[in-house]
Amino acid sequence: MVRCPPVKSNVLKIVLGLVLTLALLYFFGRSVDWKDVPAQITHVSIPLFLLAVLLSASHFVFRAARWHVLVAREKIDVRFRNLVAANVIGFTVTFIFPGRLGELVKPLYLARKEGLRPGFTIGTVVVERLFDMATMCLLLGLFLISRPLFAASWPIGEEAGRRLTFLGTVGIAIAAGALVVVLLLYFYRERALRVIAFLLRPLSEKARLAALKLVVEFIDGLRFFRTRSQLALYSVMSLVVWLGITLFYWVFFAAYYVHLPYFLVIPYVFLTAVGASIPTPGMVGGFDYFSKLGMVLVLGLAAGPAAGITLAFHAVQLAVTCALGYAILAREGLTVLQLRKLGESEIR
Known about the structure:
Elements: H1 7-29, H2 37-42, H3 46-55, H4 58-71, H5 80-96, H6 102-114, H7 118-145, H8 147-150, H9 158-187, H10 189-199, H11 205-222, H12 228-255, H13 265-276, H14 286-297, H15 303-332, H16 336-344
Helix pairs in contact: 1-14, 3-12, 4-5, 4-12, 5-6, 5-15, 6-7, 6-16, 7-9, 7-11, 7-12, 7-13, 9-10, 10-11, 13-14, 14-15
């Protein structure tokens, strides 16, 4: 494998991550009257709150069912509990460590548990993220197109519409660019491997061969759908994943006496997904700022209630995910530091 980057490089990444987190937290906390926030957090319907807590873990099950469609190409009898556990552990690592390391830990954990090729499972996760982005862009596009249907009952301001349109366009552009790269790797496999082999020439022979082996497995992980029915099934399951996440937020809003149409939660979820993609530890700052932005800009909440509900959202997701993650790790005798080394071993 390629050696670790110098210590100075690691320190620089940590410093930049900390600066980014603090900057986002500043924008999150700006204009908030914090003395009213504790009362906002505790003003909640307990039954609906508990229901939202249960729903917060449901996406692990939906994601596992969707992931099985991809990994079944290499192993049809993958144990469902390992698919769920890999998702939980991946999100746990992402919550604890910076750089979204969980995106690597998730496929590598499954590869070890099920005897799959690491590069193959990493490729399947790339496919997942492409579909996540495309699905959210699709839902946002449908929302923006249908705005006139509910504009009278719940108007969205011009500024909110412009920002959502801009972010949706950026998301589509990123998804399209990533899809182009995937298609090039898929259809021009041999040429791509020759180019990659040329770029890896500065490495030692052992490191070059190991890296090429991983790339070959990764490309194999991208060769996922053999039939149109498989593509259609995976697309529908991606919609189920994100509509389920939207349902969680809708119930959570209701628990805090914010009653709004289910469809109106979609642009909010899109914005939180943008914030969560920022590689800060525990998604701190990115998720919080974009969550508050969505509540103020799209839902019309005041800054104080928006900040309070955001903190409750974040705390529940962190607590539920880490509780499940640590329970799985305790059962298997693992630690998060071991998982961190597992993920970092693939980027060395």
